Amino acid sequence: MATLKEILAKKIEEFRPRTTRLVKEFGDVKIGDVTISQAIGGARDVKCLVTDISYLDPHEGIRFRGKTIPETFEALPKAPNSNYPTVEAFWFFLLTGDVPTQAQVDEVIAEWKTRQVVPSYVWDAIRGLPRDSHPMVMLSVGLLAMQRDSKFAAFYNSGKFNKNVAWESVYEDACDIVARIPIVAAFIYNLKYRSDFQVPIDPKLDMGANFAHMIGQCEDYKDVARMYFILHSDHESGNVSAHTTHLVHSALSDPYYAYSAGINGLAGPLHGLANQEVLDWTLKFQEKYCKDQEPTKELVTKALWDTLNSGQVVPGYGHAVLRKTDPRYMSQREFCLNTPGLKDDKLFKLVAMIFETAPGVLMEHGKAKNPWPNVDAQSGVIQWYYGVREWDFYTVLFGVGRALGCMANITWDRGLGYAIERPKSVTTAMLEKWAEESKKAASN
Ligand code: AMX
Fold it and tell me: What protein family is recorded (predicted)?
């Protein structure tokens, strides 16, 4: 049986001529124009990134390797006694586009075990931080501390660096990072919230199950972890964490530097930190409005307007690309509705009420182009229900999942030899000149 790396090597070899031909023969074909509002407004919709790992349609939502979320869950081999695939099966699929056999999944699970040794100086680096540092700082520092192990950096410094095979050492780092990041995350959780009570990995368990085990969670949480990490893995290339990782790696910074930077982007409240903000908003709402009464749509409406009128965003709602409810939201909602206990949970019911109310309020407010919920509006309530109530940790969970997409993407970036990223800037005076010229041309 060919290994994952051998299958990947064959796929990259086969794919390369497509990229080379596009650049060589069709390099001048235009795929879009850039407007002044795109240049000033965060490059929204500017088509200048390429990935085949996932695609985000504004109306349909995400497809991983051509498959919707339900199709992905359906197609992949499941974890033992579970309706969900293992993260390892998903990793194989994300990297190659092939649905692995059970034997191939078992091989990835076994291989990750060999990579799960985190050097003790990583723990020292994290322990050296003030205990009230944000867990995303700890995750970013933990990743950077592991950079000493980078096989890509070692290959680059070996004097034998060769562009054609550079992807192989990125792949090695990528596998090390995805295998180790849940261990680092569990360490941070136990350090911060369980009085440094550290639990060793259980070599019999797959990644999701092992994460549940390390943070002292119950049997049912194993599926929560698998589902969570898969859903948060990839959202095409333009989001801040994926794009940052791609950008930093394009300078041939190794995957540790690149993903540590990606994690720093994920820590922004408009991006991954929104999951923590959603829980914070919802609990503050309960505290302020529902001490002596049950939540009602009227109270939720009032709280939403209070947020908007104070100039803040409603966390968990809106999206730069999506123009409908995020299927990652729906997938988690379905999980809640199918989980006895969770479907009747007070917080879940409140989140469901916000879902019924917020889109109308945002439409009336008239600013957000997408008034529908994104992934972050639903994820915290599941963690809360299972007892992971330290909501400043939620973005770390996002970061564990997002590692899969970012690492798969930069492995392919190197495989296809993507160039250092370097868009061109212009000055405001140039924009004003072009604006005047366009006005004159329109009036002639
Ligand atoms: N609440 C209030 N106002 C919102 C809003 C929301 N949820 N979503 C968008 N708006 C506002 C924007 O702030 C912007 O206002 P401005 O004109 O005064 O600057 C206006 O509506 C137009 O914005 P947009 O084009 O609809 O969105 P965008 O592409 O600029 O930003 C996003 C997208 C996600 C940052 C934005 O919708 C937002 O801030 N949402 C809340 C935070 C959040 O949930 N982030 C997580 C996104 C998913 C993820 O990455 N994890």
Answer: Belongs to the citrate synthase family.
Q: Which tokens hold the place of 367?
A: 């600013």
Residue with tokens 């497509």: 18
Ligand 1 centroid from CA 368, angstroms: 6
**Ligand 1 pocket test: which of 241, 305, 313, 323 has the largest number of ligand atoms within 8 Å of its C-beta?**
313
Nearest-angstrom CA–CA distance, 246 and 181? 18
Cβ contacts of 158-164, under 8 Å, gap ≥ 24: 163/417
Query: Which of 385, 406, 435 is a domain's end point?
Result: 385
- Ligand 1, atom 45, residue with closest C-alpha: 270
Please tell me the pTM assigned to this model. Answer: 0.97
User: Where a domain ends, among 344, 363, 385?
Assistant: 385
94 within 8 A of 266, measured Cβ to Cβ = no
Residues 185 and 129 in one domain: yes
295 lines ligand 1 (CB under 6 A): no
Split into its structural domains, the chain has a count of 2
Question: Which residue range is the domain that position 117 belongs to?
Answer: 54-272+397-415
- What token pair was written down for 423? 């868009």
Q: Name the residue with the closest Cα to ligand 1, atom 21.
A: 368
* Ranges of H-type helices in 366-393: 376-385
C-alpha span between 258 and 248 (Å, rounded): 5
pLDDT digits (tens, 9 = 90+) for 105-130: 999 999 999 999 999 999 999 999 99
The residues that are catalytic are 271, 319, 376
The reported pLDDT for the residue numbered 292 is 86
